[in-house]
DNA sequence: GCGAACTGGGTACAGTGTTCGCAATATCCG
DNA sequence: CGGATATTGCGAACACTGTACCCAGTTCGC
């Protein structure tokens, strides 16, 4: 019975009723994976590494999951589960703002999450619940499905794209094994070439003025600024 | 002389002046990588695979590049090079629309590109040229650097996020070795569970109505719809 | 001509996901 | 109660991956 003949992850019972009780659970596997991804990056999440974290044999994991990909799905759904208990404001604009900020905060907490979430949709219970919740702000305004999805898609595309590029340098620094400062120094080596060449006047101006203080909260401000623009754009297209 | 002591990719001369002439070029390496990525996916791009494509030894590639990551940078910059020759409309709104559409078309042509581009910034000549070009639409309106970057960041975050989720299922289908239809069928198995549970009324409604025709150009329409919203949001925040 | 700089490439190593096979164990059914 | 059956844990093995190290061969500057 090849793995392909089995039903997909979320339609499969977690374990059978016949044999010995499993020593672990899907939940434990997901948590182990998340712990590794948070501290060592998504690339460090390997079957052997997870098994070691659980203190079990490597191939025993295939009793809980049919492919590594399914572990990633478990991890993704588990992370979305952190948002359980969220209640949204009544005003659609406030609700969408809340959704966007929660998505971003989750991504900041788990830098590897956007890479997973931007992939195919997750059908885990937490993810389905979250999707349902993100559809609710549009209840009042009566929109067709197309307009609804266009609005929600615009918002989530923006958030996803933003957080992804937002943490690019942090991830890059970790992957290369350098500290953030070391990495910034290496990237900074390009500065003179760019600014000295004279071929990129606009880029040069941006680089010079970007050196100004308040760099710490700049990402926050950019995100909020972008969010307001997206919300304004959505509002402008309401019937 | 470890690789880490050498200057970063774009500050290093492509080859020395002393020894034998190299049998290939960075350009050829990038093209080989792109060819593989386009036809077999980004995961298929390995040092051995590229070397085979070029008809050279695997470790000879390290004469052109110090890490595999640098090959990915070469590939990214090469793809951006396809946009050389672009001339933008005078009106800032038309210009941004053109930029967004070109980014999307490039992503559709090279599905692996967004995953690279959403990472750390590329400092290759084509990428720098493109960045400079994307800054130009704001020349007329006199904006501070912060507003300028907020506007451009909003647009590119949206485009990046959109194309990434846009092609998620295609990539997922290829990775699992199934045809697109087969994959859709497997995903469709979740339908009854979701709609039958009664816990997701809004999601159910969306799924039912999404079955309507015109599925083919739905992505196009969603992208255009989102783009107009983003542009409207940017316009709303101009001084 | 000679040393220094440079290129090509084979070998080796530590890691990856996953398949197969087998022993141990728990439940269901007669 | 006694098998038959389903299920679990897991070691061995396979075909991959990126790249450090080494050495021979080539070409330029002096």
Automatic annotation (TrEMBL), chains A, B:
Transmembrane: is it a keyword of this entry?
no
Report keywords, A-Z: DNA-binding, Transcription, Transcription regulation
Residues of the region (Disordered) are: 1-23
Could you tell me which InterPro entries the record lists for this protein?
Homeodomain-like_sf, HTH-type_TetR-like_transc_reg, HTH_TetR, Repressor_TetR_C, Tet_transcr_reg_TetR-rel_C_sf
Any transmembrane segments, and where? none
| Keyword Hydrolase belongs to the record | no
The record's annotation in SUPFAM superfamilies points to:
Homeodomain-like, Tetracyclin repressor-like, C-terminal domain
Q: Which residues form the HTH tetR-type domain?
A: 23-83
In which residue ranges does the UniProt entry place its DNA-binding region annotation?
46-65
What name goes with this protein? TetR/AcrR family transcriptional regulator
Task: Please give the organism.
Answer: Amycolatopsis heterodermiae
Q: What is the lineage of its organism?
A: Bacteria, Bacillati, Actinomycetota, Actinomycetes, Pseudonocardiales
